[in-house]
Amino acid sequence: MVKNIIILSLLLLSLCTAANASLSDAESAVRTLAESKKKYMDIGVSFRHIETGKGFVIENSKSYPLASAYKLPLMLCVLKKCESGDMSLKDMIEIRNADRCIGSGELQYAPAGKKYSLSHLIYEMMSSSDNTAADAVFNRLKRNETMDFLKACGILHTNVYIANRPSWLLSLGEYSDFKGMSSYEIASKWMKMSSRDRFYAIDKVNSENSSLTIAQFQSIEDASESSGTYAGDVVIAEALDNTGTPSDFTGMLSSLWKGTVLDKTMREKALYYLASCKYNSRIPGRLPKGTRVWHKTGTICGCVNDAGIIEFSSSSHGAIAVFVRNISDGRQKEAADAIAEISKIIYEACR
After folding, report:
1. CA-CA distance, 267 to 272, in Å (whole number)?
2. pLDDT tens string for the chain (351 positions)?
3. Where are the alpha helices (DSSP H) in the chain?
4. How far apart are CA 79 and CA 87, in angstroms?
5. Is the N or the C terminus of the chain less surrounded, counting Cβ atoms within 10 Å?
6. Are 161 and 198 spatial neighbours (Cβ–Cβ below 8 Å)?
7. CA gap 151, 279 in Å, rounded
8. What does 265-302 look like in DSSP terms, one character per residue?
9. Quick one: which H or E segment has residue 317?
């Protein structure tokens, strides 16, 4: 009997040692890949095996523009409010002009007065990354409500404070204090502003453009594309965006999976929305067909992101966040491919 116990213990020790070595090899491979891309982009990675807590981080100390990845913590915040009864997924929300934003999604073209359930808006902002749906949700929260939620969850290095529409309008210089300024000048001024001054600017740019139609909005964007430069677009996009670290995202995803951030009902809703993501060339891109992945992408000029949960087996899951910034012109697909390859390396190490 004792002999059998010793043999079993040695076997388990051997398996744990092999798993640790495999993960160490994966970290080394991911680090090598990230280093090989240094000339063209900065890659930040966080991986956490949810059941064991083991993992690694690369370039995590930097703050990364989130692009539409910010919609993940926004979703969690709203679902927490639904859990407490302050909101309901059945709430009907009217799309206002102040919610309309160009870019991803079709709700920007919704007829005046059109109402959608909160559940539908969350689904659209998570599946097709609909900017108007996200703003309609964001604008129903109190200022700093998402930030307060994140802090309560121990997520301390993610800053979600601005919706899509004001961020885009400010970056285009459609704000009286930014008129005639270049992208570099706007970015520089914004980075020096206090939180109070930024919130004032957000309110004012919304007020000054309250009657701007979606067609006019798109026309302004089209004109800027012909007059701006890629480098300038990257600088302004990164400056006027929500920010965070890869580790913050693996932390919130791990907590979501474990059921410590939302109750069972809202946890299942969150996973349903994350599973609906239609953009699957990044984390899921090079994984075996049928692999279950719950994730949210994000893309702006010079930035390509993805954060989510990968299922290795029914009892083994990993939270992964790969944020890429400072991408050289023409290398957006290369950045997306790097996310896919990093995910594949990790998947093969954890199978």
Report:
1. 9
2. 545 544 434 333 343 444 566 899 999 999 999 999 999 999 999 999 999 999 999 987 778 999 999 999 999 999 999 999 999 999 999 999 999 999 999 999 999 889 999 999 999 999 999 999 999 999 999 999 999 999 999 999 999 999 999 999 999 999 999 999 999 999 999 999 999 999 999 999 999 999 999 999 999 999 998 888 999 999 999 999 999 999 999 999 999 999 999 999 999 999 999 999 999 999 999 999 999 999 999 999 999 999 999 999 999 999 999 999 999 999 999 999 999 999 999 999 998
3. 2-36, 71-84, 118-127, 131-138, 145-152, 164-171, 183-192, 195-208, 214-227, 230-239, 246-258, 264-275, 332-350
4. 8
5. N
6. yes
7. 29
8. HHHHHHHHHHHT----SSTTTTSPTT--EEEEEEEETT
9. strand 316-325
Tokens of 261: 């951030």
Compute the distance between CA of residue 148 and CA of residue 333 in angstroms, rounded to an integer. Answer: 35
C-beta of residue 245 within 8 angstroms of C-beta of residue 46: yes
Distances from the Cα of 190 to the Cα of 102, 202, 317, angstroms:
22, 11, 40
Q: Would the pTM of this model clear 0.70, i.e. be above it?
A: yes
CA–centroid distance for 80 within its chain: 18
Q: What are the residues whose beta carbons fall under 8 Å from the beta carbon of 191, sequence distance 6 or more?
A: 239
SS3 306: strand
DSSP string, 98-148: GG--SSS-SGGGPPTT-EEEHHHHHHHHHHS--HHHHHHHHTTSPTTHHHH
Pairing of strands 42-49, 55-58: antiparallel
In the numeric block, the tokens 């002009």 are attached to 97
Reference 49, options 327, 343, 345, 316; nearest CA is: 316
Element (H, E) at 311: strand 303-313
Task: Indicate the DSSP class of residue 43.
Answer: E
